[in-house]
Amino acid sequence: MAAAVAFFATFRIDSVSGELFPSFVFRWSHKPDQLLPAAEIGHGDAERPPVDLRTTTVYDFPQFLGKGRNLLVDNVILARDWAGQPPKLVWRHAIGAGWSSFAVVNGHAVTMEQRGGQELVTCYSIRNGELEWVNSIQARYELITGGVGPRSTPTIDDGLVYSLGATGRLQCLEGATGNRRWERNLREDCHITVANEASDLPWGRSASPLVVDDLVIVPGGGPSGGPFVSLVAMDKKTGKTVWEGGDRQISYSSPAVATLGGVRQVLIVNEADVTGLDLKTGKVLWEHPWPGSSNSSASVSQAVPVAPDRVLLSKAYGNGAAFLKLVPSGEGAFEAEVVWANSKVMKTKFSNVAIKDGFVYGLSDGVLECVDLADGRRAWREGRYPQGQILRVGDLLLVLAESGEVVLVEASPDRANHVLGRFQAIEGQTWNNFALYGPYLLVRNALESACYELPLEEPARL
After folding, report:
1. At a CB cut-off of 8 Å and minimum separation 6, what does 147 contact?
2. Is 143 or 306 the better-scoring residue by pLDDT?
3. Structural domains in the chain plus CATH codes
């Protein structure tokens, strides 16, 4: 007992892995982000072009999970031989804490990070990794089991950047400079106290803003016990509320837009159900139970639309996967019928799934898995990557392990986890999604970020 007392007097838990293994450091140690200098724009490159986020390219990755918010890049063909053509490091540097990914437009990569008491939105050049602009607010999120810093990914649209901080600060920024155009405080708007949010949503605001038509849409929430607002839609130019929809407590998932059953709608996984809302009005069109609690068995994974009228759900904590069919029930509403449900497959914890040719690929409790979308049966399950992330690029999968290793895998139901190549991209616990802009793969975690040029079968025209 004396030894245990001495140990905990000397060390503290610094972080917890996705598998809930603690990491210890000396009690007097600072967090890595607190040791970083303030983010400052360098002046060594006089030839650096201006930040132009209005010009778009076919290779843009402008939001969470890619252009279609579906974990798919379909306009580049990756080379399969990494032994003969290894990925090339373009740049690598320290970064502030957080689980945000990069949004990329026209060669500029925007993310969020924490440095001390400052929550930042930062823009980097893909060409050389230099910081091009920074937006800073006074805010800090920190939890042993959740880590430090912001966790959502910015969205770039029409030259503007939309970011949601871990404490609920939603901002619209000028893409050229990072200057603020408008701001909303969701915690205050939804009448939530700091104590309420710490108790009910302890892992911080994690939803990435959805920008569609003239709207920016984010989960709202509410005080303990309600009333709750599932989604808030705002005018993307002014930040003024256009509609509020749904009355469920929020989760850590992000909204997505889809046309299902001939109706354009917003899908959102709430704390304990999944809902479809009319895009123009916010009216609830359908809802289906999806058990969870935002302070324990949290919902993180997206609801995935499958045309013409189906929705795929996945989650850890005993849920597994379910495939729903939307059946019209009159006056534009729907009933969600269960096509199949299988609690043993697609137990996604922090990650999402990709679909190809009627099969689903994802990290189920950290193991790469392939499941038949028609009946929910597993095709194969191999290769352990703990709580990492995936991205489908054509008929291949890029897998980012929690260790920071990148692995190239064949996306085929007939070839169980056919690994084509691998390399160590960054070091440290990595929960962040990655982004692909043409041949350029952007990876990051709470300590460092890097850009690699991947070999292509056909050159990209950037």
Report:
1. 15, 97, 98, 99, 429, 431, 446
2. 306
3. 31-453 (2.140.10.10)
